[in-house]
Amino acid sequence: MEKYLWGGVFSETEKSENIKRFIDSFHFDWIICSENFDITLTHAVALNKLGILEKDAIVKIFESKQKVIKSIQEAQKDEFEDVHSAIEFFISKFVGEDVGFNLRLGRSRNEEVISSTNLWILRKFLNLKDMFKKISDSVISSAEKNFGKVVPLFTHTRQAQPILFSHLVLSYHEGFIRCLERISDCLERFDVCHLGSGAGAGTGVPLDVEFMAQMLGFSKISQNSIDSTGRRDNITELIFNFAILSELFSKIADDLILLSSENFGFVELSDKLCTGSSMMPQKKNPDTLEVTRSKFPKLTGYLNSMLMLEKGLISGYSKDLQEDKRILFSALHEIFEVCEIIPEVFLNMKATEGNIHNYTLATDLAEKIVQDKKITYREAHKLVGEKLKKGEKIKDITIEESLRLKRTPQSTNPNLVKNQIENHKKRSDQILGEIERFLKRFEEADFRKRIEDYLRNI
Ligand code: ARG
Q1: Per-residue pLDDT tens for 410-446?
Q2: What single DSSP character describes residue 30?
Q3: pTM score > 0.85 for this model?
Q4: Which atom of ligand 1 is least distant from the CA of 319?
Q5: How many CB atoms sit inside 10 A of residue 356's CB?
Q6: DSSP class of 80
C-alpha cells in the first residue's frame, strides 16, 4: 500500500535518506498518535453524518485504535512521512482501503496537526496537575516546618531587614500561583477545534464542525481557516509560561545557593541535593540547585525559537511550522524535569540560625523614634544613621520585636505569615481545582463515551 498521501503529480516520490529524515516528522510527531487517531475518528463520524461512511466503518475504526497505536509505536520511525500518514495507513490496513482512502475527504493535515497538538497538550496537562500539586504542597510544608526561623532579607545583596524564612518561602509560592493562573488562562487558547479549516481555505464538504468540536471536548471552533492553519501563538504562549515558571525556579535556586554558602549560612541543604569534588575533599556542591538554575536560559532559548519560527512566514501553512512540535516537546521535557525536582528541593533543605547583623534593625528603630519623639522620618533616619556610624549597637529592639512590629498585611509579622500559610493552601487548591475541572472533558475515556453514545443512537 502506498504510504504517501500524495504523489499523482510527481514523476517520483522517493527521496534520499537525508532529505527524507530532514523533512519528515514521523520520528518525532508519532507522539501525538492517540490524539491524531481520535481526530481522524471524529472526522469519520462527521462523514457518517453526511452519509459518506457507513456506521459499520465507524465501529471498525473505533475498535481498531489499540492495534493502530501499537503498530505506530512499533513502526520504524523512518517508515512514514508523518503521524497523519501512519494513522491512515494502519486504519486502511486494519479496517480496509475502502474506508481508509476516504478519510482524507474534506480535510488536510494542516488543520489536523494543530487540532491534534491542541488535544495532546490538554490531555498532557491532565496528568500534570498532580505534579503541580506536589510542588505547591512541598513549598507550603516547608513554610510550615520552618515557621519561626529568621533570616535577613537581602536588598542589593546586602543584609536589609529580618524576615521570617517562611515569608520568603511563601513569596515563591505567590509566584507559583501566578504561574498556575497564567498556565490555566493559556490553556484556554488550546481549547479550539480547527477541523473544517482544510488546507487553509475550508472545504466544500459540509462537515458539522460544531459537532466535531463537541465530540473531542473542545468548547470553541476556529473562526478563520487561514488563522487556524498558519499560526502557532498558543504554543509560543505556553512556552513563555514555562520560561516564567523556570525563572521562578531559577530564583529559588539562586537564593538557596547563596543562603546555604558558608559565607551566608542561613540555609542547610541535605546531602541528598549535593555532590562532592573529585579533588577538594571538603566540598559539598549544590548541584541540584545549579542544574535547576540552568533550565531558565534553555527555556528562554526555546521561547525565542518559537517566536522566530513564525517570523517571515506569509499567511497560510508553511512547513517551517512543523518544527513547532520539536521545540514544544523539548521545552516540555525540560520543564517537567525541573518540576519533578522542586518538591525534593523543598523537602531537603531547612533554615538555620545564621549571623543576622544588628544594623538590620535600623529601620524599626527609626520608625519607633518617629512615634516616640514625634519627629519627621527624615530626622529619625539621620539620628539612627549617625548612631551606626559611631559604631553603636541597636539595643532598643530585638529581632523578634522587629518582626512583631510589622503591621501591613503583606509584611513579615508572624501572625500574618501564619494566616498567609492557610490562605496559600486555599488559593492553590482553588486554581488547581479550576484547571482540573476545565481539563476533565478532554479525557480520552470521556471521548470514547461520547463516540459510543453516538454509535448507540444511529
Ligand atoms: N507534519 C506537518 C506538521 O507537523 C503536518 C502538515 C503537513 N502539511 C503538508 N502539506 N505537508 O506541521
Answers
A1: 999 999 999 999 999 999 999 999 999 999 999 999 9
A2: G
A3: yes
A4: 12
A5: 18
A6: S
Whether 238 and 186 have beta carbons less than 8 Å apart is answered as: yes
Q: For residue 321, which atom of ligand 1 is closest to its CA?
A: 12
Tell me the DSSP string of 308-345. HHTTTPPSS--GGGGHHHHHHHHHHHHHHHHHHHHHHH
Ligand 1 atom at shortest distance from the alpha carbon of 83: 1
Ligand 1 centroid vs 82 CA: distance in angstroms? 8
User: Which atom of ligand 1 is nearest to 81's Cα?
Assistant: 1
How do residues 388-420 score in pLDDT, each as one tens digit? 999 999 998 999 999 999 999 999 999 999 999
CA angle 27, 104, 192 (to 5 degrees): 75
Q: For the chain, how big is the Rg over CA atoms in Å?
A: 29
Give nearest CA residue, ligand 1 atom 11: 319
Percent of the chain predicted with pLDDT > 90: 95
Per-residue pLDDT, 17: 87
Report the run of H or E that residue 153 belongs to, with start and end.
Answer: strand 150-155
DSSP class per residue in 225-279: HHHHHH--HHHHHHHHHHHHHHHHHHHHHHHHHHHHSTTT-SEEE-GGG-B--SS
Residue 363 CA to residue 132 CA, distance in Å, equals 38
Distance 134 CA to ligand 1 centre (A): 37
User: Ligand 1 center to residue 184 CA distance, Å?
Assistant: 28
Residue 95's CB is within 10 A of a number of other CB atoms, namely 23
Distance (Å) from CA 104 to ligand 1 centroid: 14
Pairwise CA distance, residues 299 & 241, whole Å = 10
For the annotated catalytic residues, the residue numbers are 156, 277
H/E stretch holding 174: helix 165-187
| Integer CA distances (angstroms), 126 to 50, 187, 336, 438, 449, in order | 33, 11, 14, 10, 18
391: left (phi over 0), alpha (psi -120 to 50) or beta: left
Q: What lines the ligand 1 site, CB under 6 Å? A: 25, 29, 82, 109-110, 113, 319, 321-322, 325
